[in-house]
Design a protein that fits this description.
The protein is an all-alpha fold. It is built from eight helices and no strands.
Length: 193
């Protein structure tokens, strides 16, 4: 077994090229395996929200189509020769779609499909968060450009009580988000204007 990103990239390549008779990615073939995986690993590392999508999805067609929609680098690799070639999110902030994927995976039932605490994180999550005052503290749910002034970020890090908030750390009753997911959300908030 390799690193989590090596494993995710291998699974993605196998889904896109080997496991499906329909050739989901005509720009890739068995000969491009190493180039694809070498290009995919840094993309995976720079976009932590994408890895859980790959790890948790067992339907190859749905996985490949979801990733095509979320990652321009992957969509390009499916039609261009040579695999991902190092393209991807790079040092830039995660996209709204990548953050939505984190919320979809961790907040379903309470804030997606429900509005616990009067907060919906259903797509687009930005409609109910960016510049919207929190009902629990004197902060916006997401304050553009400032993760530490964003109540949502404080709730997922467990620092909300310091800001005069209430309730428990999110996700309530579940394991905290992975550090890379928390950091991805923080980077996204910091990138907003």
């Amino acid at each position: 077994m390799g690193t989590p990103c090596e494993n995710a990239c291998t699974k993605l390549f196998n889904c896109a090229v080997i496991d499906q008779p329909m050739d989901l990615c005509p720009g890739l073939d068995e000969d491009s395996r190493m180039a694809f995986i070498e290009g995919c690993i840094p993309t995976c590392a720079d976009n932590p929200a994408l890895r859980p999508i790959v790890e948790q999805q067992d339907d190859c067609t749905q996985l490949v189509n979801t990733l095509k929609g979320l990652s321009p680098a992957f969509a390009d690799s499916c039609t261009d020769e040579g695999g991902m070639g190092g393209a991807g999110g790079g040092p830039g902030a995660p996209t709204e779609e990548e953050i939505q994927a984190i919320f979809n995976a961790n907040c379903n039932g309470c804030h997606i499909g429900g509005e616990s605490g009067e907060l919906s994180l259903a797509a687009p999550f930005t409609a109910d968060t960016v510049g919207v005052p929190s009902s629990q503290a004197n902060l916006n749910r997401i304050e553009p450009g400032d993760r530490d002034a964003s109540y949502l970020f404080l709730k997922i890090t467990g620092r909300h009580l310091e800001a005069g908030g209430s309730g428990g750390r999110m996700p309530l009753g579940g394991a905290p988000l992975a550090e890379e997911e928390i950091e991805a959300i923080g980077q996204y908030i910091d990138s907003l204007e």
